[in-house]
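Worked example 2:
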Amino acid sequence: MTDAYDDELGPDDAFDDDEDEASGNRVPAGVATAVLDYVARAIVDDPDSVVVEVEEGRHGVTLRLHVAPDDMGKVIGRRGRVAQAIRSLVRAAGARDGSDVQVDIVD
């Protein structure tokens, strides 16, 4: 017994996502953006105020992290150690996407 699904599309054609990736419908540095959003929301007291802006440039992708003014110290950390750890983590996640990612923490 055959159904209309088998007649129109083969089993390999039904889940072919290569066309979507080639068409340019991807978010630049999507994994890195998701990692930055997740980590920032976990660190701060007001996770609803976390905003990540994505900007593409010649030298890669820049992610701008906005947090509440009261949470700025938590995101930066003592002597900038938390900020450096966040930048390293997000840069590694961006490398997985094949993107050069930089993180800016803005007021």
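The chain has five helices and three strands. The longest strand covers residues 51-57.
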